[in-house]
Amino acid sequence: MIKRIELPTTRIDPSRRIAFKYRGKTFHGIEGDTVATALYANGVRIFSRSLKYHRPRGIYSLDGESGNCLMQINGMPNVHAEQTLLKDNMHVEPQNVLGTPEWDLLGILDQFHWAMPAGFYYRMFHRPYRFWPFFMKQLRKIAGLGRLNPNSSGKNYDELYLNAEVCVVGAGPAGMRAALAAASHGLRVVLLEAQPWLGGCFDYRTSEYSAGMALFQRAQQLAEKVEQTVNIRIFRKTSLLGIYNDNLITACQKDSKADSDDERYIEIRAESIVVATGCTERPLIFENNERPGVMQAGCAQRLARTYGLLPGRRAVFSIGHDMGLEAAVDLADVGLTVACVADCRSAGQDPLLIEALAERQIPYLQGWVAAGARGAKTLKSVWLTTTDGALKRKFKCDLLVSSAGLSTVPNPLFLTPARMAYDTHTGLFLPRRLPPKIHAAGQMMGYQNAESIEASGHLAGLSAVTECGIDVAKQLNEARGHLNDLPGPPRGCDLVRAPGRQDRQFICFDEDVTVNHIYQACEMGFDRPELAKRFTAAGTGPTQAGIPGQNLPMAVARYRGQPLGATVPTTVRPPMRGTLLGTYAGRNADIYKQTPLHKVQLESNAVFRRVGPWKRARYFAKDATARAEIKSVRNKVGLIDVSTLGKFRLFGPDALKALQRVYVGDMSKMSPGKLKYSAMCNDDGCLIDDGVVVQLGENDYYFTTSTGRAGATAEWFRYQTRFDNWCFHMVNLTDAFGAINVAGPRSREVIEHLTDEDVSNPAFPYMGYREIRLRNAIDVRVLRLGFVGELSFEIHIPASYTPTVWNWLLEAGKDTGILPFGLEAQNVLRLEKGHIIIGVESEIRTTLHDLGMGFLWERRKTEAKTIGAFALKETEEQQGRLKLVGFKMNDAAVIPKEGSLIVADGIRGYVCSARYSECLDASIGMALVESALTKPETPLKIFEDGMGDHRYQATVVTRPFYDPEGKRMKI
């Protein structure tokens, strides 16, 4: 392993060695390495082979802008090795090779590049058409990168949803200053950074920021301030995925050390956004510009400054910006031999950097550029030429640091209605018009001076503060004036490509697209960047427009003889970074609601099941039939948690009108202390909910809904009365109140132990409502109902008191043999009584008439415009509909499955629910059947999967099965 350089800027810990496997052999890296830097330290220079020509590829950039370092890591294909932190026992394999990266048998394809012109796959394999299926299969076999391993271990996913006043994208100096400016006014700020650390373009640079302070030290200083600011929430290793309407931002965080998640999906709703994503280096286009050993200036400098690795032994620099000159000086100081520096710019260089090169005796060639890289697999030498191609020089080297200049990272702005334009002075595409509440800062505005970068960030942060409703006009004017006094954007480079062979000048590394391919596309009429992109596939690979971004429109403009600003970079669509589908799915967490009695029931050995959004107790014993619980309710007393019922208060001058509109019954006939049972229908007259309503006082009502309808009832009321201008208010009390149903012939005894109120039948009759106090301590609401067919009291209690009341009831009922019962017992009990559950005995087409509940509909309140009234009238005598009936199995040992078919000559209906009833000693159920089968004593034939010609036999019977006169509910 190569010896590391000890520098104050490094992010590694040499004392911590990490073992990993590459191609089955064990290698070692150190803490802080990425997979790519660890391999580079072990002498690996060829990381993969290209998609089409199988050309060797190595480290080019460390920001995932190219697919050169896509590898299979721990069974996962297409992982960016240069961005993936090294971990113990990682298994790393190269991709897209037949053999090894160094000796790929498919490398022979590179010799036939002439046979694969632009769009050849669109034009060459369709004639004669009978051969197309064969070629299609072969093309599909070789298309794409990487192979999925179905046996690879899964990842951990999470999701996070945030609200913030300001979201800052990019935690370089501009982004950190913007975040600090917004946070200083008390705003909540979310800061997103793709790197594992803050600092951006200052992070690894040693140039002077101010007297006695280097840029990297300034980055550390700003990072400490940001980290100590409590209202700034920082997300490192987080890539922006998209920006949508109303400033909805999506992002993906990878390998969060704060959590155990491999990837986390994040959504942020922000009032204002600051985009400070900075610049990348624009690739220099020359012959063999993607050969291993060719890399960007920032990549070479970061290998040394961040990871302690000299990027090579002898280097040639071919650059078009001052940061390239700075990198040459810096790397020469840490031990790299720099053979020469070629600068393709004719003017605009920093004279201090030119002087620094001269002090180190490094030859400086102004107006020269790299024309070609040489070497069979890795770089051995480079040809330099003047930009007009008149002169040439050859240099032996193993490293070529190349960059045509800088290129902004405007992709986040392309996702908004921002307008970008080419700036002839800087050679950059800069924002010329930004949408409201979106701001840009730092290098992406063309600034390169350190103070100017920070000042623009501070100004953007204050602008965001203003849009959040805080008046900082004075500070904003001062910040704007300060920025205007600092150096503006410097002159840039407009070189598109160096002289040389167009068929070996690669504009897109992912798809092996050369300048020659772009020109071929233009010759065929695809002479717009968007068209050339699609026809040649440039920028459609795994890293999208990372490499061809600004070069593609510049190349098209040059071909057409137009100014470089005549075209703009191609469209960007979310997601901006390749993201796993599992990230969007999240952790697939089982998110559910708990009633106030969940913990108490858990301690009673309740077995819970998912019911819609809730976890509810299914039964309290190992016996899944819940026989003991059923017997307790029928013969003694039981209690069940019904807190999931919807509970609402409706009040106001027009509250009764709203009730009349939504409920099918005549709600004006209610009286205080008496419950009214009714139903809600949709416009088709189909049942959507039922429940009871009680009048608490003048224009004041309390009502319940089914569990499944609790979340939608308020919106249903508002929707159905939206044009009436009625004055009423609704309060959803579902979570504010718990509810316990005490049921059984001895339930009154239990209640009497807890209150001095008279709960006798004359004082508190069936369908009555009372507000009483338990043990002189807790005020509750009690409803006399009979869903399970026995004397029962439904007690509604403030949620925090519900566990206490549950325990009081159990204690008070010890002598009666009280038992808690769950949904299974309740299901059998209500089935015996013939009571329906919406969604079980009904479906989307089932009207009140079909269920035998048409008696609930009051025909005479036409002024109320009751929802569903017209449909109920039209369907009252309608034939050919499925009707609800009760049935009894001829063989009591047979219990048909729910959904089993009722058959005769064809399908005549289906079973809704069925259970064995011990008190009836029969298997009973309810089914929706054709009207011809609804008469009592009608035989039914039931079919289930796998029965063949056999059928279960049942008989239609009158409902309810148990206590048809309802005497037990009214005792």
Give an overview of the whole structure.
- This protein has 971 residues and is an alpha+beta fold.
- It has 7 domains: 14-122, 2Fe-2S iron-sulphur cluster binding domain, sarcosine oxidase, alpha subunit, N-terminal domain (Ubiquitin-like (UB roll), Roll), CATH 3.10.20.440; 157-280 and 408-485, FAD/NAD(P)-binding domain, CATH 3.50.50; 286-403, 3-Layer(bba) Sandwich (FAD/NAD(P)-binding domain); 502-575, no CATH class; 598-643 and 737-830, Probable tRNA modification gtpase trme, domain 1 (Gyrase A, domain 2); 646-732, 2-Layer Sandwich (Alpha-Beta Plaits); 879-971, Elongation Factor Tu (Ef-tu), domain 3 (Beta Barrel), CATH 2.40.30.
- The protein contains 23 helices and 49 strands.
- A hairpin with a 2-residue loop joins strand 5 (70-73) and strand 6 (76-80).
- Helix 10 (450-467) runs antiparallel to helix 11 (473-485).
- The longest helix has 18 residues, at 450-467.
- The radius of gyration is 38 Å and the shape is elongated.
- The termini are far apart.
Explain the layout of strands and helices.
Layout: E1 13-22, E2 25-31, H1 35-41, E3 48-49, E4 56-57, E5 70-73, E6 76-80, E7 90-93, H2 120-123, H3 132-142, E8 157-169, H4 173-183, E9 189-192, E10 208-210, E11 213-214, H5 215-228, E12 232-235, E13 238-244, E14 248-254, E15 263-275, E16 279-282, E17 294-295, H6 297-305, E18 314-319, H7 322-333, E19 337-343, H8 351-359, E20 364-366, E21 368-374, E22 381-386, E23 392-396, E24 399-402, E25 405-408, H9 411-414, E26 419-423, E27 428-433, E28 438-440, H10 450-467, H11 473-485, E29 506-508, E30 513-514, H12 515-523, H13 529-536, H14 551-560, H15 581-585, H16 598-603, E31 607-611, E32 614-619, H17 627-635, E33 638-641, E34 646-651, H18 655-662, E35 676-681, E36 687-697, E37 700-705, H19 713-720, E38 729-732, E39 737-743, H20 747-752, E40 769-774, E41 778-785, E42 792-798, H21 802-812, E43 819-820, H22 823-833, H23 869-875, E44 882-889, E45 901-903, E46 907-917, E47 922-930, E48 939-943, E49 952-957
Helix pairs in contact: 4-5, 4-10, 6-7, 7-8, 10-11, 12-13, 12-14, 17-22
